[in-house]
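Bug #77: duplicate submission created two jobs. Keeping one. Sequence:
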Amino acid sequence: MIRASGTTVSAVLYVHFGRCSEDAYTELLALLADITPVVQALPPDAALADVRGALRYFGQDAAGLARLVRLRAAARYGTGCTVGVGPNPLLARMAAHDGDFGGVREVRPEDVARFLDRKPVAALHGVGPATARTLCSYGLDSVGRLAAAPPATLQRILGAATARRLAERARGDDTTPVVPSAPARSAAAEHRFGHDELDPEQRRRALLTLADGLGFRMRTDRQVAHGLSLTVRYADRSATTRTRTLPEPTAHTPALTHAAYALHDALGLQRARVRSVALRAENLTAAELAARQLSFDPREERARRAEAAADRARVRFGAAAAYPAGAVAA
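Kept job's structure:
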């Protein structure tokens, strides 16, 4: 919670602009920056703003500043938006998502327990479908019941770290700061073949190499991608580009590789003469801001631990120290 003069106040805005282009999104972020310098971009169409320092300057409370944001967005850019107002990012985000698009919705500090109590557990930020099903199977189908559950019970169901994090969120506690940041763009990598490549298996090897390299770069920078684009360039210098939204934001090499293979196979290239393939990780955001679906598959956890060990080896000894079997040798 945010406290001013010993009192908890609502001072965080979660602004959802809806569908907009990258250029329009950048301009809308600048609009927020006119009110407070503490603006955290959440591409492709949202942002967090800490307005504590702006309350006295504008002579308004956070809800008043939220209405000002909506007015300026409509007047300058003809863009509607939803603004959630709360004492912390979690509650501001949930307020914004509590209803149809448009308007200002505030969760006051004194109303937190009542706001959360009857919410379905899936509405809690960070709880994905599989986690929600698991919690519901134990009767923890609402945020209120999750908050009231004994810590030992949650630890047996979810593990210690996840249980502690979700219990805090179920009580409306969120100490995550709003970190000023520009909108994350993208990261790209390309593989050019030594000759016009006809073999789809060689193209898949190249895609594995690219996905692995992008994944390593994002993990090193603590970022995740929301989407993946594939560009295939042909011998006649024409090109085809296809984009896919990922099931969840990720920098995990197997997930990126699976998406790259699916994009490639959907093109039905058959005997096409391919000059190069390129992957672009789209809409990068900070890894700690992205909700990851919990996995109860021990093979998935082992794969992630092995990936982390390989990353440490690469950082210390170079890119050739570890790479997936089947990739083009570094």
